[in-house]
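re: ur question from yesterday

yeah so i grabbed the chain u mentioned. its 288 aa long if i counted rite. heres the sequnce exactly as i have it in my notes:
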Amino acid sequence: MKKNYGPYYVAPLTVWLAVFFVIPVSVIVYYSFLKKGFNGGVTHEFSLDAFRALYNPTVFKIAFNTFWVACASTAVMVALAIPASYFMARSKHKNLYMLLVIVPFWTNFLIRIYAWMAILGNNGILNSTLISMGLMREHIQFLYNTNAVILVTVYTYLPFAILPLYSTIEKFDFSLVEAARDLGATKLTATMRILLPNIRGGITTAVLFTFIPAFGNYAVPQIIGGSDSYMLGNVIARELTVTRNWPLASSISMVLTALTTLGVLLFMRFNRSSMESAREKAGKGAAA
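ran it thru and got these structure tokens back, copy pasting raw so excuse formatting
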């Protein structure tokens, strides 16, 4: 009788998920239902005070700003990644461009953020160049606002959009686009009706890979952003390190995780429904 080694194969993954996901999330959920300790930490008494504290205009404003920054950053990243991935897939120098996309990961994350401060600062490269060219008389405040957070977030996570899209576009059969062009379709029509529907899987992956880290962003708004670009990640860090309100930080983390999971599931379901609808239309068209 052949022995089943399946449980042994999945055991390392099971242990990994249990240690680094299930247990930490369980601790967060548990802490969110406790009381804040007098000197910080928690008191092991059941309480809903942490969730009641979420119902205030400030938290709603920060949550909306977090959602807006994540959505705007994701939209820009996907819009830039599609043509970049297409160019890479059609180029003879694929390996070189792939290397250039990966190179930023060789540098520390914080160093890359501080480099943008040297570029966008009041005495930075951009302001100095514009003033020296006579295009303006005094510096412009490029830093410490929502636009700066979106810009640096796009720069930070753009490779996570390019890589899955490149992988998908590289496998695409471009003869389909050429056939559409031969039948009279314009470049735009062939792209919108042939290319994009066939790389939808890559687009979905790119959206998920960029929206999730952008939604939970902490370092970029903390360093680059200002008072109007505060995000939920910054609130969690403040509650943990400054006010030491661990139950409130845990409740915000729990809500953030739940919203992210719900958004991902809804997006995937919508994408699946769209793909099924497209297949049905294609089937009807072929039958006709």
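noticed a couple things. The radius of gyration is 24 Å. also The chain has a mean pLDDT of 84.
anyway ttyl
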